[in-house]
Amino acid sequence: MLKVGVLGAGHLGKIHLRLLNESAKYELIGFYDADAINGSAVSKEFGYTYFDNINTLIDAVDVIDVVTPTLSHFDCAKRAMEKGKHVFLEKPITNTLEEAEALLSLQKKYGVKGQVGHVERFNPAFLAVREAIENPMFIETHRLAEFNPRGTDVPVVLDLMIHDIDAILSVVPSEVKQISASGVSVISNSPDIANARIAFENGCVANLTASRISLKNMRKSRFFQRDAYISVDFLEKKVEVVKMKDAPENPGEFDMVLQNAEGVRKQIYFENPEINLNNAILDELETFAEAIEKDTEPLVSLEDGTRALRVALEIISSF
User: Which GO molecular function, any one, fits this protein according to its record (predicted)?
Assistant: First the structure.
């Protein structure tokens, strides 16, 4: 088992603490929180060991799980890497692109592994269709959330949209060519609603919308590709896969057949991939442990996190 320590005991930090404590792949040594009053309260309520010195905790573990505010991600990860510790970082990877690139250098220098918490990669609905998404040419995403003061210290792009940015970058086999975007601040000092259009060099276009002042929650993505339409509902854990194939000469009575202006006939059929429900946060943490144990590349590498941040910051600069 890998000895692990958590930095940050806020809302998400407490979730990580509980899951790591239950995991068979980790031994939870304890946690550090800059707020000593909160740290003591969490320790008293849940029984986790509270360290009042960050360096003492880092020295005692193999892996550091950083669940602090984004502004402190770089400093926390740097301290851990310089002591030869593997690092799991919540998204976004860092506050600036320069910090992310510095972590990439530190990772190579100290020979440690890092993973970024883009948890939607482990969403059971996305996992169910991931292999079916092949060279999509148009993507549409909507990530809407009811207002919550937590997270409004950063633009909605870094708070919500970055989930979809990472998922899109993971399935589009091309570099970004052009980005255009607009954002509006309604209640926060930073944009609460944003729309972005990402054009890729291979011709794929992705249209992303994110809002944190919606009247309802929604996390849906639609992928359009040659002879297929794939819809993923990240919130409800549902998928819809509609495909087309050459129509038979003598279709059945209930076969759905379309014919275009050139006379090409296609048959529409539906697939129902099996969705294996999971705890996505636990899965991302445990696959990181497996990458460390087997010396393989983490499923969401620091490079992936850096690329997502780069696109997110370019979107913000387009406002």
Answer: nucleotide binding
Tabulate helix, strand, coil % of the chain (nearest 5).
35, 30, 35
Tokens at 115, concatenated:
């993973």
Residue pair 192/184 in contact (Cβ under 8 Å)? The answer is: yes
Predicted structure pTM score? 0.95
| Distance from the first to the final alpha carbon of the chain | 46
Rounded to an integer, what distance in angstroms lies between the CA atom of residue 26 and that of residue 252? 55
Place of tokens 């940015």: 165
101 with 126, same domain?
A: no
Task: Please check the confidence at residue 174 and state whether its pLDDT lies above 90.
Answer: yes
Q: Which of 42, 56, 43, 217 is CA-nearest to residue 147?
A: 217
Tokens of 73: 């991600």
What is the CATH classification number for the domain harbouring 79?
A: 3.40.50.720
Q: What is the pLDDT of residues 176-197, one digit of tens each?
A: 999 999 999 999 888 999 999 9
Give 186's DSSP letter: S
151: confidence class by pLDDT, cuts 50, 70, 90: low
Residue 302 C-beta-side C-alpha neighbours within 13 Å: 24
Assign residue 185 the CATH number of its domain: 3.30.360.10
CA 291 from centroid of its chain's CA atoms: 18
